Amino acid sequence: MSSHLIKALVFVCLTAGLAAAQQPSATGYTDLVYDEQSGNATAYAGTMVDYDVLYEYQAEIWLTVTKQGSGAYVVNDGMLDPWNGYASVVRTFATEPGATYTAIGAHSVRLSLWDYYPTPPYNQYYFDDWYFSSFVGQGIYEPLGYYFASPGYYEYRRASDIISLGRTYDSESTPPLTVTITKADESALPNPFKLAKTGTLPGGGAAINRKQSLKATVNPANEVANITIEVTSKISISNVQTNSGKGYISFDVVGNSPSSNTSCGGDSFIRAKRSGTVLVEKPTFISVPSKTATPHDTVGIYEASNRVLHAGTSPSIFDLGEGNVALYTIYVRKLTITVKDQCNNLIGDLYAGASITETIGASNVPINQALTSSSTYSDPVGLGIRHSVVPAGSTAATNWPNQPLQPMVSSSASQFIAVQVDGFTLVPGIVDRSWTATPPNTLTITWPN
User: What's the predicted TM-score (pTM) here?
Assistant: First the structure.
């Protein structure tokens, strides 16, 4: 953004007895241009004398550039023309975002002194065609030509003291620096932003990597090299990459420690900084599966069927020999279990696909269900009647689903089951849930909220 003040002036040197068209002049110009791509600005200032006075006056320029609010010079340089009637200074400098710079060109000329008198007493002689100078104090009253004592004959020119002509100005304001942190697809982050923590599966293996990919877009783009991304201690950051051409930083983040259940607005931060100054920060909450939510489902979807069960089915059976399956008649209700985090938030967006395990004896075993994006999983609850254990793939196993159901028997059970989601134990899990089977086909479930 440019604010052009007095960028150019024509300085008319008025001389008594000369018509306006004959009056000699000098031209001064100052320009300041900001380049968005590089983030640099180029300042230019120049003074040029007319051809009519080219041999009587030397052009001179002094260029200064200052940043608003700062007393220091960004540019402070000048030039006296090498006897060609033109002096200019061009300087390029790095700018800061959101700043206003002012360039001032101070224009002047110097009267040329000619030293060319070849015979004793070797005086220095010069003309003042335009009556700019005065040596009355030295007893010289005619301002056309002057003689001064000289140590010898030298063919060179000298310049008088500065004859100031005036100043020209220009200014530029650089765009303010903005950094926007979004998801990698440039969708906005919620407030607070929620992160998951990668869990641990039974046997010690890592669960699904819960990292999220984010993007910090920098404007102006040339500032991207000056931006750093930082996270607080409960967040791990990786794969930080800077795209200088497009002006953004991509990076991955994941939680490494759960947030407190008293800091539901976020107790961690993702920050973008420039030279140690925080430009933007995103409050972040590290969410982990923490509890089964109420009200509890006690109806679900009723199923009565013959099933071929093993360790990889739901329901699952683990007491079979290698290569065997169990033939069961089941009377169950497939309950929908809702899981929430430590601040009572749904977590399906963070933990979709999470493995569900239950503690059986001293081990956490998979129930072969996964958390959905709605933050729920299906839990078959009820009566299972074992018919037999047969080899997998046998004729008995193949035909079993189409055989008549074994009749329901009167039975009931109470359940207190520890449940894990991605290895995180739910508190509460399954507490004081009971089922009752009443022939011929009634299954009732009670589960206090």
Answer: 0.75
